[in-house]
Design goal:
Elements: H1 8-14, E1 32-40, E2 47-48, E3 54-55, E4 59-67, H2 86-92, H3 96-105, E5 110-114, E6 131-138, E7 143-150, E8 156-159, E9 165-166, E10 168-169, E11 172-173, E12 176-177, E13 183-186, E14 219-220, H4 230-233, E15 234-242
Antiparallel strand pairs: 1-6, 1-15, 2-3, 4-5, 4-7, 7-8, 7-9, 8-13, 10-11, 12-15, 13-14
């Protein structure tokens, strides 16, 4: 597992920045400004582990991309996560690998990083009661994709379906709660440990590249109580504001 941690300075520089414009397709419809809010609504008392300890649910810094190409995906089910930098996001909560991938292969898209909780002065995960927010411009025909790590896991992450979600229903911008569209994925890169207490999970590992390789592929998490807990853990809302 060849991984690097994105420096806090670089993360701060990238936070919320629209890193590249959408060259093709602009001007075909009315642009709309969207704001996305990712809020941790989980129990502040935490969740019990088998050893009696309690741990909080947290989401890591992540990235977003607005695209209008059918072949643009941040991951492919059944493929290795290391192909496009997803491994860093899923294991260490760093979107750096995905950003590098987009800049090298899909540089005609709007993309950026969310990493600093609302009201905070420095990048970090969102714990109970905290939230991320980011905004971007889009027009009919465009989709949104995001990724963020399930912070108490070895290599789990949340994302929409691999192709993202449509930002418009025809010419009407979508609005409201889209939490149900988020899926819990397993990157298949690191052997799983009990959620919340594993020694090679983000909050407890001594450093990156400390877990055992799983040599698997990206797939949906199955046979876990966490699959059906999404609505109890966080809320993702999209608010459109038409450009005047």
């Amino acid at each position: 597992m060849q991984r690097r941690i994105l420096s806090l300075g670089l993360i701060a520089l990238l936070a919320g920045v629209q890193l590249s414009g959408i060259a093709a397709g602009r001007g075909n419809g009315k642009e709309v400004r969207f704001t996305v809010r990712i809020e941790n609504i989980s129990n502040k008392d935490g969740f019990p582990a088998s050893n009696g300890a309690k741990f909080p649910f947290a989401l890591s810094p992540g990235m977003w991309v607005v695209h209008n190409k059918l072949d643009v995906t941040l991951f492919k089910v059944g493929d290795k996560a290391s192909v496009n930098g997803l491994e860093m996001q899923a294991e260490d909560g760093s979107p750096e690998g995905l950003i590098n991938y987009l800049e090298h292969y899909h540089n005609q898209m709007l993309h950026g990083v969310f990493n600093t909780p609302v009201g905070a002065s420095a990048p970090g995960p969102i714990r109970p009661g905290a939230a991320y927010e980011f905004s971007f411009m889009a027009e009919p025909g465009m989709k949104l994709s995001i990724t963020t790590m399930f912070g108490q896991s070895n290599d789990w992450f949340y994302a929409f379906d691999a192709d993202g979600i449509h930002l418009f229903d025809g010419n009407k911008p979508i609005s409201g709660d889209v939490t149900s569209k988020l899926i819990l994925w397993d990157a298949g890169t690191e052997k799983g440990e009990e959620i919340g207490i594993g020694p090679n999970q983000g909050p407890r590992q001594k450093g990156p590249n400390t877990g055992d390789d799983e040599n698997g592929v990206v797939h949906k998490v199955k046979n876990s109580v966490w699959v059906n807990k999404t609505a109890e853990l966080f809320r993702v809302t999209i608010t459109p504001e038409e450009k005047m």
